[in-house]
Amino acid sequence: MNNTKPIIANIPHIVNEQNICPQGAARRTSGPTSRWRFAAMAVLGWTAFGSTSLQAQTQLTVFPQEYTAGMRNPLMGFRAGQQSGPHYDAGIPTRAELEADAEDMLSDLSVYPYHVLVRDYIHFNVMNDHVSDTVQRIKDYTNAAYRGYETKNIKVIPRVILMYTDHNDPAHEYWPRDLTDGDWTSQAVRNRVLSVVRQLGEAWNNDSRIAWVQMGLIGQWGEQESPYSIDQDLGGGVTWAELLEPVFKQAFPNKKVLVRS
């Protein structure tokens, strides 16, 4: 009687219960099954040893050379001036105008290799001029205004604004045509602003051309202080800060939102 036990540890796919004799029963130490089992174990052992030897033979040690110049980091470079801003006070820009400006910006940035960020003040009515406007309007602007930026690894910091200079100058206010200029408190304005924030998130949250987003929107230059502060009561004890914060968080889970005030 051969009392040698079969080795089954760590090879469950090779030896199963049908190949193991009951306790105390005679076991075959020769024949096709035993020879096949031995051959399989030998192959496994050779594979493990051979793999280790192969890794040892192909292991490389790299000693990188020192790079003394500055590194062009798309999130930490110098920031260029605004892209659109009051340049479009004459009206809502056309796609051709936006693409031409994008080309000019790329040409300017090519002179300064460490300029990798561009801030863009965007007029609200460029993104939304009527309640029927959809997120496609924002995407169309983005694709035209930032055309070719990805080829230069340039990213944009956008800020949507409702006014740019003194609030007594209607030439620098950018309200949608179906809302009342200078109305910071009505329910219609609240609904529209929050709706546009959600559309901005849909357009920009996963757009690699967007570095981060400035909240903006309220007050002169979107700086949230005057003529209406985001902490000022809109009526009923609610403020713009309380309205905007949760909507921006929901709209931009993958982007940083900068509060500029």
Short description:
The chain is of the alpha/beta class and 261 residues long. Helices cover 33% and strands 10% of the residues.
What does this structure look like?
This protein has a 5-stranded parallel sheet. α6 (240-251) links the parallel β4 and β5 (257-258). By secondary structure, it is α/β, with parallel strands linked by helices. The protein contains 6 helices and 5 strands, in the order αβαβααβαβαβ. It starts with 31 loop residues before the first helix and ends with a strand. The protein is elongated, with a radius of gyration of 33 Å.
Fill in the keyword field for this structure.
5-stranded parallel β-sheet, 33% helix, alpha/beta, 261 residues, disordered N terminus, elongated, 6 helices
